[in-house]
Each structure stands twice: as C-alpha cells, then as structure tokens.
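Bench notes, afternoon.
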Amino acid sequence: MRMLLTSLLLLIVYLIFLGILAALGFPFEFLLLVAAGMAFLQFFFSDKLVLWSTGTRIVAEDEYPELHRTIERLAVRAGLPKPKVGVMPSPVPNAFATGRSPRNAVVAVTDSIVRMLTPEELEAVLAHEISHVKNRDMLTLTMASFISMLAFLIMRNWFFMGLFGGGGNRDNNLGALVLIYVVSILVWVVSTLLTRALSRYREFAADRGSAVLTDNPRALISALQKISGRMDYIPAEKKREVEGANAFFIIPALSGNTLMELFSTHPPLEKRVAALERLEAERRGY
C-alpha cells in the first residue's frame, strides 16, 4: 500500500508539472526527448555501467561453484532463470543486483562478503538480490525517476531556454521563465524524495522476499548486522571507491556523514531488522 501510494503521488506530481509547463506555453519537447533518452540509456545500459564502474567480473561456475549453486537454487525457488554471477574485488562486504529484466540480470557479491558470512547468511543476502530481480526494481525506479530527470534538466538549462525558447514580450517571458524554474525546483525536490521513499520500500520488499525464499529471516538479520558493523572498520578511501553503486548495494557504503533518512535510498538498519523480526515472530506463530 505504501508503494502504491508513493507511486500515485509521483504520478500526480508529474501530471501537475507537465500541465503547468503546457499552460505556460513552454517548449519542453526537446527536454522531454533528452530525458526520455537518458531514461532509455539508464534502463538498457546501467547494468553494464555498474559492472564496469565497480570492476565486477562475471565468473564461471568452476571459479565459484557454491555461489553459483546457491544462486541457481534461489532462482528456481523464485521461478526465475538463473542470473549471471558476478564478483567484485573489494574489502567492502556487499552485494547487488542489476539488469533490466530477469533474463539479463546479474547478481554480484564482493569477494570479501563471501569470506565474511556463513553459508546461511550469504544465502539470505543472495535471496534479497534475487527478490530485487523478481520485483523488476530497475524498471520501477527508472520509470519513477523520469520526470525528476526532466525537472533537473530544466533547472540546469532554464536561462539558455529562456533566451532561445519562444517569442513574445521579453518581460512576460522572463516572468514565465522564473515561474518554470521555481516549479522545476519544487518538482525535482518532491519527486526525488518520493523516488527515494519508493526505493526504501523496495528494500523492505526485497528483505521480505529473502525471508520467504529462505524461510530464515534471522539469517538476513545477522548478515545485515555483520555488514553494517564491518563498515565502521573499512577505510574511508575504500568506501569512496564504491560509493557510486550505493543505490544498488544491500547496505550503502558511506564514507562521510550519514545521509538524512529522508534522502536515503535505504531504510535505517534498525527498521529493517524490526520488520524482519516481525516476520520471524509470524513464522514461529507468536
């Protein structure tokens, strides 16, 4: 219900934004095309960019046989084709999934997380990532961020567009331009907050999916706590090396001050653990 409500609010914001632009006679067709192109590139090539930027390598079954077997077993349980398996060399223990659809998905782990977690904990983490694939979260978040990208483009290029967009009285054009700029800022802020709220709800959904696939929410609780606890001992420069992939990670690797919860792509660890503990209580019947 929270995801549906957030999506509905995003839709309302988008319709209001486009309606205001149309009412002001703003020639936003070019920017709409640019934003659509950015969304297209994000959807079709973000998986390759994530793998390239993190140095993740697709590994064969004979290199990591147990990792392959676990992912294959979870994919069968989830009713999915087996994703490609990637390993990222990094002292930051983490995992992520990417790919625009289940048929070209990649589930990747850092080599350090394989060494750090028990088999049950690693299975729970992999089940979380498999759940992201099953839920098609890449498609969901790409669609959700589309108008946010458009608003951001207008903010960055408003003066240029004011000079070359449309004729008429210069003072009227300037007034409309300022209004468009203010509206674009508001839309970008609101849509970014809503998109990040949606991202946090997707993390809760993937946690729940892990608990269902493994029937072992306690293993994911233990894994999340281990990963989060280990972050305090990772050098800041090592965390900075992988910060670009934080939106994909099961636990973000933050090198500086913790982001405000409102702007975070992930829910706080305490809330995730509490939700999993409720699932554990339901599983045990109390």
